[in-house]
Amino acid sequence: MKKLIALLLAVVMCLSLVACGASNDTAANDAANNDAATTDEAAGEATGETVKIGMVTDVGGVNDKSFNQTSWEGLQALAAEDPTFEVSYLESKTDADYASNIESFIDEDYDLIICVGYMLADATRAAAEANPDQKFAIIDDNSCEDLPNVACLMFAQAEASYLVGVVAGMATETNTVGYVQGMVSESMNQFGVGFISGVLAANPEATVLQFNANSFGDPTGGSAATTDMITKGADVVFHAAGGTGNGVIEACAANKVYAIGVDADQSPLAPEYVLTSAMKRVDTAAQDISKAVKDGTFTAGTHMYDMTNGGVDIAPTQDLLTEEMIAAVEEAKAGILDGSIVVPTTAEEVPEFTLDDAE
Amino acid sequence: MDNVINTVGIIIYATLLYTPPLLFAAMGSCFSEVSGVVNIGIEGMMTIGAFTGATVAHFTGNPWLGFICGGLAGMAFGLLHGVATVQFGADQTISGTAINFLAPGVAIVTAKAIFNSSDTIPLEPTSKIPTLFSDVFTSGTAWSNFMKNIFSTYASTYLVFVVLILVWFVFYKTRFGLRMRACGEHPLACQSLGIDVQRTRMICVCISGFMAGLGGACMTMATTNQFRPTSIVGQGFIAIAAVIFGKFRPQGAMLGCLLFGMCSGLRVVIGTSSLNISAQLISMIPYVVTVIVLILFVGKSHVPAANGKPFVKAK
Amino acid sequence: MSKLEKILQSAFFRTLLSILIGFAVGAIFLLAVNISPVEAYEKLFTSIFSSPKSLSYCVVYATPLIILGLSVAFSFRTGVFNIGAEGQFVVGSMAACVVGILVPAPPVILPILCIAAAAIAGALWGVIVGFLKVKWGINEVLSMIMFNWIAFYLSNYIADIPLIKSDGNAEATKNVQEAAMILLPKSWIEGLGLCNSASWGIFIAAALAVMVYIIIEKTSLGYRLKAVGFNRDAAEYGGINANRSIMTALAISGAMSGIAGATNLLGIGQRIAIFSAQESYGFQGIIAALIGANNPLGVFVGGLFYGAIKYGGSRLNLIGAPSEVVNVIMGTVIFFIAVSHVFKFRLKKEKGGKK
Prior knowledge:
The structure holds three protein chains of three kinds. By secondary structure, chain A is α/β, with parallel strands linked by helices. Chain A has helices at about 1-35, 40-45, 65-80, 95-105, 120-130, 155-170, 185-200, 220-230, 245-255, 280-295, 325-340; strands at about 50-55, 85-90, 110-115, 135-140, 150-155, 175-180, 205-210, 235-240, 260-265, 275-280, 300-305, 310-315. Chain A has eleven helices and twelve strands. By secondary structure, chain B is mainly α. Chain C is mainly α. Chain C contains 16 helices and no strands. Chain C has helices spanning about 5-10, 10-30, 35-50, 50-75, 85-100, 110-135, 140-160, 185-190, 200-220, 220-230, 230-235, 240-270, 280-290, 295-315, 325-340, 340-355. In chain C, helix 4 (about 50-75) runs antiparallel to helix 12, helix 4 (about 50-75) crosses helix 13 and helix 5 (about 85-100) crosses helix 13. The chains are: A alpha/beta, B mainly alpha, C mainly alpha. Chains B and C meet through helix 4, helix 10 and helix 12 of B and helix 7, helix 13 and helix 15 of C.
């Protein structure tokens, strides 16, 4: 019995320690929160009105190295510069989590719910129809554009990958470039289609080796496929493959050839070898729509983010690009803007894109 | 002909890329299982090793220090498993399952505490495990590409085979190895011969955690350059499968890991070729082939007799 | 033995103690990330208990965990470790999904067909493993790990077949017909303020718990299965066909995992997405079984607890706390459940000393 009492005492002490620690910690905690740009009610209340922005990720999670992460970083940056914004996210672990996550934000009276990815389209539609006063935004989907309370944020990612395609076409000395895609889907295919068009526009001689990794989380496979491509002569490899792309960049660095990143400026992953990146400014889009809610200028329907409004672009890091490449990129940009270049978006338009055939 | 050389080269390259994390973990699993402790927590130990390795290497800039620390972190959880199962005679499956939840949780929460993100900061090339002979072989002809792909690989790949020889030696040529295997078969007989079964098992479980940690660190310090929550997804279980495949012998486990790595390489080669097969079916290859090879060539595997049974000292 | 001591020695008390320790360890990690544990746990519990809606969500989350837990508990009791529940869950969901999309049948009949298809698919996935074991002596843990992955890619493959695949641009199957869903009547949901996904699933789980109890404790089949699990050689000596018992046990366990997949699909999912990573329902089922000490009633309660923590825990992100803390808590709970019999052991010794 004595030992049992000792054990119970130990547990009680543990708990009370924790409780004490907690109360002591609150002050420090608040200070830390200011820096970390997470929820900070105090600051918001001081200026009167808080705008609560909630983000629901798809199953990739918030650190997916792709649109979930970029959106969240955009929101965090927004909250850091304007403390009236209170931002938070809920991660979806499975397809079944979308509805309950959206509902949680509705229950907590968020002003705007940003749903990241076309996988959330059905859940968003259901929630938006059931809660007509709640504002929603959905990224990469326009199936909800008929609803009066949903803003559909669409991206012309093919235009960004076209630009890096132009760079790749010029940079290759072997007339062979590689492309690794994370998964075959309409949205992902746009990256490949745009890239191949860009490569061929800049260098009609070039061939594009392609690989569907069938996973966003297999860097080993990405690395092996990239080495395969390099062995077959590729000297520039572009990836649109999330975490699998880490392996692509790694293999390029190991073989001292160029890699091209995606979504964000991936230069920090290997500054000497990441030639450029196809940027999809999901962060800007998330910030814009949040600001619109604050200013009362929120509009439903499709918001197209393309070259004209800087929604897609080539990465700002251009240390490895030659003068000619930069000039060619500027020329391509101008062509896209004035309509003389129309970047294809579907697999049917670009027969050289082979990944879609394999079901 | 060049095509054939290229393809074979890539398959070997991919095999050597997939194998080291698996083989380190599998050798760890061998130690534990052979001494009579089921260690299903290998996956968790790999994850904590992967995280610790990448973190320490990031802050110290020393890849080998990071690598060892990754092993030590795995060992800490090995110790936990040992205390629970060997010391207190807890159910080994339950304790292992607990570690599979605990260790990744600890890794990610700690990552968030240190980096304010569940990813670690990408390692500088100098703090990564280096590649060997990268300047010896140059690309050019098919043969030189072949040699480059096979031999210009990470130091950890060479290391894993050196360690394998060491482990084989410990298993079959030392007194400790003999005792360890005896503890897994007839613990009571061992005790009557004056072998401290508990102590032997404890050491084995700790070694097993250490090796699993090294395996995890390979993943984040060689194959990639940062820890992410998806760095270790299932490799631990594949390693356990390789051990059962290899009939609980380190050299057998190596064959299991190589087979699995080779099939994964095959998957990549088929994927980059122009063959028109569903990516989903291609992705199944490693798993299906493992089962088929088992049926055709391996068959029944002898599980150490006292495996999974807690040993209580007779008095 | 005093009444107090009896309570203290019960499995229930030890589990409770383990849960307390789990939360204490979780608190330490929360402090490490500069989050007040009090605030975090408050959020956790208010997320669970704030409304009938959130409570019903917890039940919805718990349903597949309970059924998977029963499946795993059943396998444990019969001497196999069903680490393959994950794969059986996946093929079960897919079978139910295919039937739910393609078969034209009226309400009530259709869900039954879906669940039957799921049970058959899950059982088949279990029996294959059993067959490999009895025919070629292939270790079941090994083949289950392989079959989990095969199920994963098989499901992705089927979801990509044009007949099944969504017409929209979602990488998922079509939605199953409304008639296939097992949701509670709309009037109940609105009347009680439950969540839209509240379904009959929990009742199916309860029925299965009773069934498992009866099979294990009250039938000769259960006796035979347990006997083989306990000591294969002795059972065979006693005239029990061990190979057949192993196959039967895996079939029943697999069927339950398959049903878990079906209830999840017909209750909340309505479609199956093309996976990019394993959802690890199987391992969560193992956790539910372990909390419940492999006892059907215990698994039911343990599954509810885990479901609630899973639902509430994911809301920790709202206050900036890492939701992975839930894994730390659950890992610790399981760990202490594993070693908790030590406490009991010590107590007994002490009592002996007093005499």
